[in-house]
Specification:
Largest sheet: 8 strands, antiparallel
Radius of gyration: 28 Å
CATH topology of the largest domain: OB fold (Dihydrolipoamide Acetyltransferase, E2P)
Number of strands: 15
Shape: elongated
Number of domains: 2
CATH architecture of the largest domain: Beta Barrel
Strand order of the largest sheet: 8-9-10-11-12-13-14-15
Helix content: under 10%
Structural class: mainly beta
């Protein structure tokens, strides 16, 4: 039986020596050839200014590994949703840790792509009272206005898990498997769902409907 010819028998040789190697400075674009250094990957930064005149979520940040003691131009946000009059808008506070990248590696075009916490003291309070290692969704402001979604207990307001909308320790709506609890400093409404019957409790027994 005749041997089947291979690509090498036909004189074809593919050079893959540089496929898995990082590009050398000579292979970079015109920016590198003009003396501009490029920065790829993520760098730790700190928010210095979050009052964006354009209200587009831009930040001015300090990135010591790139700018030294200086601060950046306005860094554009990288957000999961956006469009005409729609999308997500967030502005990390001054002093917050942010991850910074650069468009095509150019330090004149920074992008902030996310945040990081430097210690346990910086993480949201609601996240600290959930079960460690169990997925939980927490969104909390500096004034402790929070949204919490959890499948596990979040004491004391969600003993069986559920959804919490909180405007402070005394003003919240808690929705869980056992019912709905609405609280404010002036009034309360508790709808429980025990086996066989439902109960509506207004202002701690002032009105009770079974």
């Amino acid at each position: 039986m005749a041997k089947r010819k291979t690509m090498q028998d036909l004189g074809y040789v593919e050079d893959m020596s540089g496929m898995f190697s990082p590009p050398s400075p000579d292979d970079d674009d015109a920016g590198s050839r003009s003396g501009v250094r490029h920065y790829y990957g993520k760098y730790r930064g700190t928010v210095l200014q979050n009052v964006d005149p354009m209200r587009s979520g831009r930040l001015q940040v300090q990135v010591p590994d790139v700018y030294g003691p200086n601060f950046s131009t306005w860094a554009l946000p990288c957000l999961p949703s956006g469009g005409m009059l729609t999308g997500m808008y967030v502005a990390p506070p001054i002093g917050a840790g942010v991850w910074v990248e650069f468009e095509q590696g150019d330090p004149d075009y920074p992008i902030w792509v996310g945040c990081w916490w430097g210690s346990l003291a910086e993480t949201p309070n609601q996240a600290k009272i959930t079960t460690p290692g169990v997925p939980v969704i927490t969104l909390e402001s500096l004034g402790q206005k929070a949204i919490v979604i959890s499948d596990t207990p979040v004491p004391p307001l969600l003993p069986q898990g559920g959804i919490l909308l909180s405007a402070g320790p005394q003003t919240f709506i808690a929705v869980g498997p056992a019912g709905i609890n609405i609280q404010s400093p002036l009034t309360s409404l508790n709808l429980t769902l025990p086996p066989g019957a439902g109960v509506v409790n207004v202002n701690n027994g002032a009105l009770l409907v079974k």
